[in-house]
TrEMBL record:
The keyword Ribosomal protein does not apply. InterPro entries: Cyt_c/b562 (IPR010980), Cyt_c_II (IPR002321), Cyt_c_prime (IPR012127). It comes from Pseudooceanicola antarcticus. The lineage of its organism: Bacteria, Pseudomonadati, Pseudomonadota, Alphaproteobacteria, Rhodobacterales. It comes from the Bacteria. GO terms for cellular component: periplasmic space. This is Cytochrome c556. GO terms for biological process: electron transport chain. Binds 1 heme group per subunit. GO terms for molecular function: electron transfer activity; heme binding; iron ion binding. Residues 1-22 form the signal peptide. Keywords: Electron transport, Heme, Iron, Metal-binding, Signal, Transport. Heme c binds at C134, C137, H138.
Length: 144
């Protein structure tokens, strides 16, 4: 049952993201939003296990961890171009404070790479670091 619920939530989240991206006309911004969606989806996989909403699965946790770290490493490249779109949630301050922004991305990548996926306890130990890295950047550079 937990797995089924998680699957439904994941599909709804992906569908919602797809609809949100449908309004984006700038392809660079769309790619950035898709990258953030990849991060969000893999964070949710790990979060579901940490919260006990889905059963722990070391293989799936490892896949999510690897995808999360790889996506985090791509953040500077995807945000390098100072482009915008009315649907974008990226603050213009990103390009004014590039070193800080890329530092936040590096913190996320470091936290994701450090996450051990061999047990639910190890996920719990590292999950806060990932969430903290996301939250710090979003607080500074995400416009809601």
């Amino acid at each position: 049952m937990k797995l089924r619920l998680a699957a439904i939530i994941a599909v709804c989240g992906i569908t919602g993201t797809a609809f949100a991206h449908a309004e984006v006309t700038n392809e660079v911004v769309k790619e950035r939003m898709e990258l953030m969606g990849t991060i969000r989806a893999n964070f949710a996989v790990i979060g579901g296990m940490v919260q006990g909403k889905v059963d722990f699965d070391a293989a799936k946790a490892g896949e999510a961890q690897a995808a999360l770290a790889a996506a985090a490493a791509m953040i500077p490249e995807k945000f390098e171009a100072n482009e915008t779109d009315p649907e974008s949630e990226a603050s213009p301050a990103i390009w004014d404070n590039w070193d800080e922004f890329t530092g936040f991305a590096a913190n996320l990548e470091t936290a994701a790479l450090a996450l051990e996926t061999d047990s639910v306890d190890s996920l719990k130990a590292g999950f806060g670091g990932i969430g903290g890295a996301c939250g710090a950047c979003h607080k500074a550079y995400r416009v809601d």
